[in-house]
Write a structure and sequence with these properties.
Pfam families: Peptidase_S13. This protein is of the alpha+beta class and 503 residues long. It folds into 2 domains: 229 residues, 3-Layer(bba) Sandwich (D-tyrosyl-trna(Tyr) Deacylase, Chain: A); 255 residues, Beta-lactamase (3-Layer(aba) Sandwich), CATH 3.40.710.10. It has 13 helices and 18 strands. The strands form 5 sheets. Strands 2-1-18-17-16 form a 5-stranded antiparallel sheet, with helices on both faces. Helix 3 runs antiparallel to helix 13. The chain is globular, with a radius of gyration of 24 Å.
């Protein structure tokens, strides 16, 4: 998995807005997309030999494949008169490490349980005597713009002085970083801590600028105050024009020290990286203090309420609040840009649908609700085992069968269109933007991607112009081949699906 910041995250943090571009729903794809012409058409009976020709190549001798392709066949599925027709199956019932296709399950469960209009609220309560309590509820879309709004609301309420600001982060209980995540992922934005307070996706932008040849690169934080939070061991160098660029960043296991190595050519563009914040509460309070001062509200001391402290019910009345975009927008960011933090916040938000058991973490409670939701959608609970909501954990196990059952169940649900709109379109949007361009599959496939070291997955829908809609899941594990090579093979299979015709 790349350690570099995505362009979308950079735009999110810099613009402080949710600027999603909604893709077309599957029912709209055929009419809106430019159809690719191809002289090659594949009958369903030919599909197994076409797929086998791809996956049985010698370079994949040691690779584990799991594939299931079925007609969507909504009438048969909904009436349960017959099962959807299976066009291809290989290892469909076996468990695979799924990577980010896990988000398909998380977002479907969130829609089923919470509804497309659900919003996550961040509140400030007046407890008297100049004490205000700000309660975070894990809104992953919260940015500085919303903190400006909160500060203005307080000023409008006549607040000019806060004697004590209590940051209450007890909404999510448990570790902010799952123990099953790889240490190498934790320093970066895609492994950011998941807490009741999430601001700017709990990431900070770091730029590295080339200097004169032989000099260290110059680090510069997007928020200058971040420079006081980190110790940087700078082992970089500026090299001659034309020399290869490489940058590696690691976080010291003992604390807030970044070890930076590598090189950039003189006069080249700066390297941009998003670093996960070390302390989400401190990060939130520090930013909020700045916005309070801009509204001429003085702040005395601050304190934090964590999961280790029993606080009872919140006292006082709510005097300021902001809400997230509706869930329909949050899941777009989750799936289209494969945002781990959004997925983890959503699975924890699901825990609100059931009271926490004694000593139960929020994520475990959320996963229980998720399983209930998926069963209602039509997914056999024995076909998957989840440890997180994003797919970053290697303890997750999902079968191709589970993903196909999910996609079929969602297609006949009341929220089908909203879910379809959250998926990347081949050759057009999100993590699927640069794949399958100028092929028969461009614009008519909507699917979720998944990638980790040794893992490549893809699952979604194909709306072939000469065939009925098809649902598919392709999972590759334990491969020594480069990701690029495996993706190319998967894409070749998907192009075959796009060329299906009735025979």
């Amino acid at each position: 998995m790349s350690t570099k910041i995505s362009i979308n995250l950079l735009l999110l943090i810099l613009s402080i807005t949710l600027g999603f571009q909604p893709p077309a729903a599957i029912a709209q794809v055929e009419s809106s997309a430019t159809q690719k012409t191809s002289s090659r058409k594949i009958c369903p009976a030919q599909l197994p030999s076409e797929i086998n020709a791809v996956i049985n190549k010698p370079l994949f001798n040691r690779t584990h494949w799991g594939i299931l392709v079925q007609d969507l066949n909504l009438k048969a599925v909904s009436s349960k008169v017959s099962s959807p027709r299976t066009l291809y199956s290989r290892g469909a019932e076996k468990y695979f490490t799924p990577a980010s296709v896990t988000k398909l399950l998380t977002t479907a469960a969130a829609l089923q349980q919470l509804g497309k209009d659900y919003r996550i609220r961040t509140s400030i309560y007046d407890e008297g005597n100049g004490t205000l309590r700000v309660v975070g509820r894990g809104d992953p879309s919260l940015k500085d713009e919303q903190l400006v709004t909160l500060a203005k609301q307080l000023r409008q309420q006549g607040v000019t002085r806060i004697n004590n600001l209590i940051a209450d982060e007890t909404h999510f209980k448990g570790e902010v970083i799952p123990g099953s995540w790889m240490w190498e992922d934790i320093p970066f934005y895609y492994g950011a801590p998941v807490s009741s307070f999430i601001l700017n996706e709990n990431a900070a932008i770091l730029r590295l600028f080339p200097q004169k040849v032989g000099e260290n690169l110059r680090p510069r934080w997007e928020q200058p105050s971040e420079g006081y939070r980190w110790r940087v061991r700078n082992n970089t160098v500026t090299v001659e024009e034309g020399e290869k660029k490489y940058i590696t960043i690691n976080r010291d296991i003992k604390g807030q020290t970044l070890n930076i190595q590598g090189q950039l050519a003189v006069n080249s563009q700066p390297d941009i990286t998003a670093i996960a914040v070390f302390d989400p509460i401190e990060h939130f309070v520090r930013h909020f203090r700045q916005h309070l001062l801009l509204e001429r509200i003085s702040l005395g001391r601050t304190s934090t309420v964590t999961n280790d402290i029993k606080t009872g019910e919140i006292k006082g009345e709510e005097i300021a609040a902001v809400e997230s975009a509706p869930l329909s927008e949050l899941i777009k960011e989750t799936n289209i840009n494969s945002n781990n933090l959004f997925a983890e916040a959503l699975v924890r938000t699901l825990a609100a649908k059931a009271p926490l058991k004694e000593n139960q973490t929020t994520v475990n409670a959320g996963l229980e609700v998720l399983q209930t939701a998926l069963t209602q959608i039509g997914v056999d609970p024995t076909t998957y085992k989840l440890d997180d909501g994003s797919g970053l954990s290697r303890k997750n196990l999902i079968s191709p069968q589970a993903l196909v059952q999910l996609l079929q169940g969602v297609a006949r649900s009341p929220f089908a269109k909203v879910y379809f709109n959250s998926l990347p379109i081949a050759g057009k949007t999100g993590t699927f933007k640069y794949r399958l361009r100028d092929t028969a599959a461009e614009g008519i496939v909507i699917a979720k991607t998944g990638t980790m070291t040794g893992v490549v997955s893809l699952a979604g829908y194909v709306n072939a112009p000469n065939y009925e809609p098809v649902v598919f899941s392709i999972m590759v594990n334990q491969t020594e081949q480069p990701i690029r090579v495996v993706r190319q093979a998967i894409d070749e299979i998907v192009v075959n699906l796009a060329q299906l015709r009735r025979c």
